[in-house]
Amino acid sequence: MDNNTKEEFLNQGYSRYRESGISTEMLTRAAETAAKLCEQSKKAGGSTVLPCHFADYQRLFLDLAARMSHDEPV
Amino acid sequence: MMNRFKGIEELRAANIADPAAIPQAVHRTLSNLDGLGRQLKAVAFLARKEALARAEELRHQADRSSLLFGVPLALKDLFMRTGWPCEGGSKALRGYRASRTAFAVRQLDRAGFIDCGRLTTVELALGTTGHNGYAGTPPNPWNPEYISGGSSSGSGAAVASGIIAASLGTDTGGSIRLPAAACGLVGIKPTHGLVGRSGVIALSPTLDTVGPLTRSVRDGAVVLQALTGLDKNDSSSVSLGKSDFLQTLEDGIKGLKIGLPKNYFFENTERSVAEGVNEIFHLAGRLGATCQDVTVPGIETANAMTMLITAVESGALHESTVLERHGDFEEQTLSRLLVGAFIPARDYHNALCNRAATARTVLEETFQQVDAVITPVWPYPLPTIAASDLGSNPEAAQMVLQSGHNTRPVNYLGFPAVTLPTGFDTNSNPTSVQLIGAPYTEGKLLRIARALEQELDFWSATPKLSVAPADSPT
Fold this sequence. Notes:
Chain A has 74 residues and is mainly α.
């Protein structure tokens, strides 16, 4: 991908909102907040992102619910 | 005798004994909502005609066995009912009428409740202090200079002022627990999937939950019982079969284990708040629970993960409205809705994929040792409405951000939590604790809360509100 296309993609979100009339200042603040959140969440590690991890959460809770419904009420 | 501050059991018993009186009782509730409720800026929509029609219907109904028979309630303005307004506290959704009825509302209908309308919410549920320049900022019924918390702000104010026995709120990062704690209420954030969410204006489909705010643990358990069931339109929904949250409610806490976390939850916590939680921890020990220190591993990044997921999903959900009508949003809401547009997909995906590993680790390392973890809710004494208004007080940003420190991680885990009022601080505002449990152990959490509630007797006093003309003694 050439640099112009890359920049186009990066700015796509920004341009869409600018064209609708939202101020540059507000968008810049939003981008800064986003960067901070991404930085804070990276500390969790998890660099290996496998497709199964996404479904794992729902499967975990379905298993727990199934187990609970067979036990005595708590 | 005041016609406010009646609990579900008392209201239901009166309805069963004398169904002919149901319409009159509903009329009083509607009058209180229209009077005191509007004074408190808690009411978004009053369904007078519909509620009275339903009251007449129930009056002639032979079967009076349902859990909430004839009990008048009002719900957060995110819960849709076909044909009713549902504006999510936003000018951008002004005039919107629902085309479907929320699963949770249908469950309460089956339980025989009378739907009196909708209560104020922070715009699109995006905020923890209760501020809403368009729909109104409900003051705390205990202390009107102070916040009622959010985003289920109207629900907190209406239940704490005794107008209704219960309300439904939503909780994505603390929006049931924070107003419940602020207003001296029991708030239940259920386990991921326990209560169906279809027909609720969403904030974050990954994290949103639906639950009750009540004045008593028993009332919370009753409403939760009525809510559970399989929601076929919510892919996260589960059914626990014959779960009964009331069965073990009065069993006491001997033999149960409660953990005080040594990491994360007391960071940057005001000393009086931490001391208050410690007192309740030791009270639990005196009541027979085994109390011990615990660690909650991997929780440090959960707060940021919750905010990241919420930012992406709320931004995506409301993108077209933002592009078309951004001028109709509150500035704070718009700022929050824009953040998601700048978060790379890989970070969002990473946050989702880490969820299972984090949940498993906490289950295996914390909840193998204890039945519940006790934490603060608000990490500091409740702020005033003025001090926490970001519009006029931008320096409050860090304080407002910190408000969800103890609540957001629980949403990331998807585990259940119950908040319980414990007393009052030096500003005469309610204090609270949060009890966090393993998935689908709401029954245990409610049992612990009930044992503590009996000792604390928080609702032996009521807020000293000025009485609106409709609130006449019966």
